[in-house]
Automatic annotation (TrEMBL), chains A, B:
<feature type="domain" description="CBS">
    <location>
        <begin position="156"/>
        <end position="219"/>
    </location>
</feature>
<feature type="transmembrane region" description="Helical">
    <location>
        <begin position="406"/>
        <end position="430"/>
    </location>
</feature>
<dbReference type="GO" id="GO:0005886">
    <property type="term" value="C:plasma membrane"/>
</dbReference>
<keyword id="KW-0460">Magnesium</keyword>
<dbReference type="Pfam" id="PF01769">
    <property type="entry name" value="MgtE"/>
</dbReference>
<keyword id="KW-0129">CBS domain</keyword>
<dbReference type="InterPro" id="IPR006669">
    <property type="entry name" value="MgtE_transporter"/>
</dbReference>
<keyword id="KW-0479">Metal-binding</keyword>
<keyword id="KW-0472">Membrane</keyword>
<comment type="subunit">
    <text>Homodimer.</text>
</comment>
<feature type="transmembrane region" description="Helical">
    <location>
        <begin position="377"/>
        <end position="400"/>
    </location>
</feature>
<feature type="transmembrane region" description="Helical">
    <location>
        <begin position="303"/>
        <end position="323"/>
    </location>
</feature>
<comment type="function">
    <text>Acts as a magnesium transporter.</text>
</comment>
<dbReference type="InterPro" id="IPR036739">
    <property type="entry name" value="SLC41_membr_dom_sf"/>
</dbReference>
<dbReference type="Pfam" id="PF00571">
    <property type="entry name" value="CBS"/>
</dbReference>
<feature type="domain" description="CBS">
    <location>
        <begin position="220"/>
        <end position="276"/>
    </location>
</feature>
<dbReference type="InterPro" id="IPR000644">
    <property type="entry name" value="CBS_dom"/>
</dbReference>
C-alpha cells in the first residue's frame, strides 16, 4: 500500500511535486498558522479528500492541533478515510487528540476503516473510544471488529443500500435519495427478504432505465454472485476482477446480507497481495511500506530471513568442505562454484515465480501435475543445454581446459533441469500442506539449489578426477 | 493478467471446481451439441458475462462454431469483453469465424478492447475487419488504435456520458436514460462546453439527490482531476487508487475530453504492473500468462536472461580463477564461496525490491538520496554484523579455524553492506538515465554482488595468507 511520507518535525511542502498543488498547500499553511478560520475552511474543504489527506500529512503536530480546532470531526473523518498511515502513526495521531474528538472522528469514518484502526489500538484506548462514541457507530464498528483483517468480513462495509422486493421503482428511488449520503455506494442496490436474506440485486443503471411503476422483484437479477464473510480477501479480489463488479455482497453462514465490498477497497487488496508475493520473492516480509522504515526497522524485518539463509548457507559450506581434497588438487574448479550455484538458483527462481503466482491466482489448480512436471523438465533441459554449450565453448577457449569445461557444463545442465523442477514442485507441495507457498521465497529456493547443484558438480568432478590430474 | 486455460481439443468441464457451475455447464454443452436452440439460448444468456466466457473457453472448436450459429454478434461480444486470452489465441478465434460475423463481434465489443485486439492482428486481417464494420464503430475503434498500449489513451473507452452545463437535472436524467445502454459507466457524468472542453463533473449520486430544476452548471464540481492521453497507465492507476475514483476523464493536449478510464480496467493494470515487477525480479519477462506457455515458449522467454547471466557468471569465474593459487593453498576457502556470494545477493535483492517498488509507486522521489544512502549503510551494517558474528561462531566451532572464520565473517559484513547500497542505487541510477529500473532484476544484482563480494573475500584472504599457511 502506498503511504504518505510523514515528517512531523516541521510543516513543509518540499516533497510536493505538482507546482499548482504546492502553491495551494503553501497558501493553506499560511492561513492555518494565522488561524484565519473562514478563508482556511473555504479553501481546504474545496480540496478532494485525498488532497486534504496529503495536505494533512505535510503538517507538523502543532499545525495539526490547529486544524482540529478549525474542522469538525466529520470533516476530519472524510480525509482520514483516505490516509494510509501505518498503525503506529495512526495510534500516535489519535491518542494525541482530545479523546472525545478522536472518538467522534472514528465514529464518522467509514466503519470498515474505523474497525481496522480500533483493532490495532491498545485495549484501554480502544475501549475508551468505543465508550465515547455514539451508540449506532459503536455497534456497527464492534461488529466489524470481529472479523479477521484479511477476510471479506475484514474489508467489507455495512453502509450499503438494501431494499424490499415489493417496492416499486419509484419508491426505491425515493429511498435511495434519502440514504445516499450515508452509503458507500448506491450504484448497486441489494434486495432482501424479511429475514434479511439476499434475494436479488439491481444496479442503479437498470433502476434508472426502468419504468417507475414496475416492482423491484420483477426487474431485479435473482442470480447474485456473493462472497462469505470468512473468504480470503484475495479470493474476493479475483471474483470482483473477473466479474468486473463495482461492489459484491458479503453473506454470513446463514446467508444473511451483512455487508458489501467496494471496488476501491479491492484495488488496494490486489496491490497488497501482489506486493506481498513480490517482497517474499526478495526474501523479506512486507508489513507497511518498507520505504518509510528506519534502518533499524528495515534490519529487523530482513534479519529473520538473512539469519535463516546464513544457516542454510552453512549447510552448503559444510557439504562443500567435504570436497576439500578435490579442490586442493584442481583449484580451478572453485572458480565455477558461483556460476553453477547461481544459474541453478536463477532457473529455480524463474519457475518458482510462475508457480507462486499461478497458485495465488488459482490458475495452477486447473493444470495437471504430470503435465506441469513434463513441461518443467523440458524447459529446464532446453535452457540448460543452451547455457551448457555456451559455457563449454567459453571455458575451452578461455582456459584451454575441455575436461573442466565438460564437468562444468554437464553439471550446469543437470542442475538447471533439477532446479526448474524444484522451483515448481516445492511451492506446490507447500500449498498442498497448507503452507503459503510464497514463503518458499526466492532465496530459499536459491540456497536449496546451491546445495543440490554443487553436490552434482563435485560428484562429477570427483568421478572424472583421473582425467584432471 | 489471469487467463483462462484453453484446451480446444475436446470440450470438457474437468477443470471447473464449483460443482454447481460444472453441472450448469455440462447441461449447456448437451443442449449446444444437440443444437437445442431455444433452451440453450435461454440458459446461456442467464449466465453472467464472465461465466459465459468461462463456458466458451471450455468448448472445442467444433462446439464454438455451433455457438456462433446460435448467438448474435452482440451476444458474443458481451462475453468476449471478459476474455483475457493471449493475442495469438484471439487471432486464431477471430480468423476462424466468418469474416463479416467477426467484424460485427469486434464492432459490438467495448471499443478499447476491440482496438487492443485489432492492433495485434495481421494488417490485412485488421483492414478487412475494419472494412466490414459499421461506420460508427470503425471510426471509434480507429481513433483508439492510435494510442500506445500502456498509456491512458490505450486503456480508455470513448463510451462515456457527457452533457451540457446548461441542462437541468431533469433533462440530464432524461439524457442519461437514453444513452445508458451504450455507456461503459453512467455513474460519473462529464460536463463539456461547446468546444468539447471538460468544464466539470457530476456523479450520478449527486444528480439523484439534486432538485430536478437545478442547472448542471450550478451543482457540478468544477475542479476535475483528469489524466492526459499519453500518461503511463501505471500513473493513471495510482491516481485512481489514491482518489478512489470509479472513472477518470482523459484529455488530449488541447484539453478536449476524449475518453474515460473505468475502475475495472484499472484493477487489471494494477495487477499487471505489480506482476511485471515480480517477474522481472525473478529474472524473466512477463508477456501473457507464463503458466499457459508451452515449455518451448517458456524456454524462449527465460533464455535471454539466463544467457546474459551465464556471461556475467563467467566474469565471476574468470575473476575467481586469478585466485587459483590462494585456493590451492587453503582449499577450505572454496567452501565459503556460495555463502559469501549468496548472502550479498540476498541483501542486495532485498534492498533492490524496496527501491524498485518505491520508484514504481513514486514514493522514492520524495525521499532524499543522502538519507536513503545513510539508511542503507546502517541497515547493511546491522544485518551484516549479525550474520557475520553468527558465522564466525559457527565456523570456529565446526571447523576449528578462527582465522578462516574471521576472513569469512569480515568479508560477509563488508559484502552485505556494499550489496545493500548497490541494491538501492543501481535501480535509482537506471531510473535517472531513463531505463526502467525493474530491468535491474534480482539475478543481475545478485551476479554483480557475486563479483564484488568474492573480490573482497579473496583479497582479504590473500592479505591474511600468512596466518593461514
Amino acid at each position: 500500500m502506498k503511504e504518505l511520507s510523514v515528517d512531523t518535525d516541521t510543516t513543509n511542502t518540499d516533497h510536493v511535486e505538482d507546482i499548482e498543488k504546492k502553491e495551494a498547500y503553501d497558501e493553506l499553511i499560511v492561513l492555518l498558522e494565522n488561524e484565519d478560520y473562514e478563508p482556511f475552511r473555504e479553501n481546504f474543504l474545496k480540496l478532494h479528500e485525498y488532497e486534504q489527506g496529503e495536505f494533512y500529512s505535510l503538517l507538523d503536530n502543532e499545525d495539526r492541533d490547529k486544524l482540529y480546532r478549525l474542522l469538525s470531526p466529520k470533516e476530519i473523518s472524510d480525509f482520514f478515510d483516505t490516509l494510509t498511515l501505518s498503525d503506529e502513526e495512526m495510534e500516535e495521531i489519535l491518542t494525541g487528540m482530545d479523546a472525545r474528538y478522536a472518538a467522534q472522528v472514528l465514529g464518522a469514518m467509514q466503519y470498515d476503516n474505523a474497525a481496522d484502526i480500533m483493532n490495532f489500538l491498545p485495549k484501554e484506548v480502544m475501549m475508551s473510544f468505543l465508550a465515547l462514541m455514539e451508540r449506532d457507530d459503536r455497534e456497527e464498528i464492534r461488529i466489524l471488529m470481529n472479523y479477521e483483517d484479511d477476510t471479506a468480513g475484514g474489508i467489507m462495509t455495512t453502509e450499503f443500500v438494501s431494499i424490499d422486493s415489493e417496492m416499486t421503482v419509484h419508491q426505491a428511488m425515493e429511498h435511495l435519495r434519502r440514504v445516499a449520503p450515508n452509503s458507500e455506494t448506491i450504484y448497486y442496490i441489494f434486495v432482501t427478504d424479511i429475514n434479511n436474506k439476499l434475494v436479488g440485486i439491481i444496479s442503479l443503471r437498470d433502476l434508472i432505465i426502468a419504468d417507475e411503476d414496475e416492482y423491484i422483484g420483477d426487474i431485479m437479477k435473482e442470480r447474485v454472485i456473493s462472497v462469505n464473510v470468512s473468504d480470503d480477501q484475495e479470493e474476493v479480489a479475483y471474483v470482483m476482477r473477473d466479474y468486473n463488479f463495482l461492489a459484491v455482497p458479503v453473506l454470513d453462514y446463514q446467508e444473511h446480507l451483512v455487508g458489501i465490498i467496494t471496488a476501491d477497497d479491492i484495488m488496494d487488496v490486489i496491490q497488497e497481495e501482489a506486493e506481498e508475493d513480490y517482497y517474499r520473492l526478495a526474501g523479506m516480509s512486507d508489513e507497511g511500506s518498507p520505504l518509510d522504515d528506519s534502518s533499524f526497522t528495515a534490519a529487523k524485518k530482513r534479519l529473520p530471513w538473512l539469519i535463516g539463509l546464513t544457516l542454510m548457507g552453512m549447510i552448503t559450506a559444510t557439504m562443500l568442505s567435504t570436497f576439500e581434497d578435490t579442490l586442493e588438487k584442481v583449484a580451478l574448479l572453485g572458480a565455477f562454484i558461483p556460476i553453477i550455484g547461481g544459474m541453478a538458483g536463477n532457473a529455480g527462481t524463474q519457475s518458482l515465480a510462475v508457480a507462486v503466482r499461478g497458485l495465488a491466482t488459482g490458475d495452477i489448480k486447473r493444470a495437471s501435475l504430470l503435465k506441469l512436471a513434463m513441461k518443467d523438465i523440458f524447459t529446464g533441459m532446453m535452457t540448460g543445454i543452451t547455457c551448457a554449450v555456451l559455457l563449454f565453448i567459453i571455458i575451452t577457449i578461455l582456459f584451454g581446459q575441455p575436461v573442466v569445461g565438460l564437468i562444468v557444463s554437464v553439471s550446469l545442465f543437470v542442475a538447471m533441469t533439477v532446479a526448474t523442477l524444484t522451483g515448481t514442485f516445492i511451492p506446490m507441495g507447500m500449498s498442498k500442506l497448507g503452507i503459503d507457498p510464497a514463503v518458499a521465497s526466492g532465496p530459499f529456493i536459491t540456497t536449496s539449489n546451491d546445495i543440490i547443484s554443487l553436490m552434482i558438480y563435485f560428484s562429477l568432478a570427483n568421478a572424472l578426477m583421473g582425467a584432471l590430474t
